Amino acid sequence: MNKNELVRAIANKVGITLKDANLALDGVIGAITDSLNAGEKVQVSGFGTFELKVKPARQGINPKTQEKISISETKIPTFKFGKAYKDSFN
To answer: Rounded to two decimals, what is the model's pTM?
Structure first.
């Protein structure tokens, strides 16, 4: 399912226009992104948790030249499904 299909599904499920469903989806994604950028964890009860994890700096090897390189610290957005949501599939 791509974004357009998701917007259509939201509009049909809730009974709103495609434009309103698109605005709602963009709003949710924007709010989650802003919260993560502010260093906050986003928990949606019964669904899951969005958070940023820090991958520490480390040494790597350039596969082409076998030269050692340093890889800087990076922040990775993660999502963990809640237990109730996972259990709903089984």
So the answer is: 0.79
